[in-house]
Amino acid sequence: MRKGMFAATALAMLMVASVAKAGDPASPITAERQAAFAKSLPVSDRQDFEFADRGFLGTRTDPIIKRDDGQAAWNLAAYDFLKGDAPATVNPSLWRHAQLLSKHGLFQVSDRVYQVRGFDISNITFVRGDTGWIVIDPLTMKETARAALDLVNEKLGVLPVKAVVYTHSHGDHFGGVRGVVDEADVKSGKVPIIAPKGFMEEVAAENILAGNAMNRRAQYQFGVMLPPGLEGQV
């Protein structure tokens, strides 16, 4: 299923080791073009960085989110190299965008609405209801979703999860549900899962009809086999 594909993709993206070799240093013409392009960017405009930091409440002390077997599921420190100016190997605009995306932790969006960002390839949202948390889009993996819930409980106080919402059928928006709720509570009706009409049909149809093509495309789109770094994945 696509859940598995996204989990594998996410894991490959954030693990330090990789089977692929990083790229070569920038050629002189590439370095020249990157430097020229950098001069066209409004580097003094820091509004996006202010937006990205808004509502920040804290993050994990340990950057490694582990699987049940002790292996790493996610590495929050994998992109620490993004500090400073863009190197000649990376487009300056992409570098800036990656810096914004590398911010991780718990953020308050508005009254009673919170998000944990950067713990997976998507964000997980927590709405404080009258009796507990309503969780929206519980990420790709149970380990990252569980880590997000642990952070929320640590920073905001322990509350039970009372409902889970899937906004759509992509695996990074439902694959980690077992990290925020027990299956028995779902089966008993104690914790409802709310999803769009036809959700299961969409999940199955998309993966059966297009799963192989999507997986192949993802290899090119995300560079999942490249190690993160100045000459690898950004």
From TrEMBL:
Q: Report the GO molecular function annotations.
A: linear primary-alkylsulfatase activity
Listed under GO cellular component are:
outer membrane-bounded periplasmic space
Q: Name one Pfam family in it.
A: Lactamase_B
InterPro entries noted in UniProt:
Bact_Alkyl/Aryl-Sulfatase (IPR052195), Bds1/SdsA1_MBL-fold (IPR044097), Metallo-B-lactamas (IPR001279), RibonucZ/Hydroxyglut_hydro (IPR036866)
Please verify whether the record's keywords include RNA-binding.
no
Q: Which UniProt keywords apply?
A: Signal
What GO biological process terms are annotated to this protein in UniProt?
A: dodecyl sulfate metabolic process
Signal peptide limits: 1-22
Metallo-beta-lactamase domain: from which residue to which, for each copy? 118-204
Instruction: Please identify the protein, giving its name as recorded.
Output: Alkyl/aryl-sulfatase
Q: Which organism is it from?
A: Caulobacter vibrioides (Caulobacter crescentus)
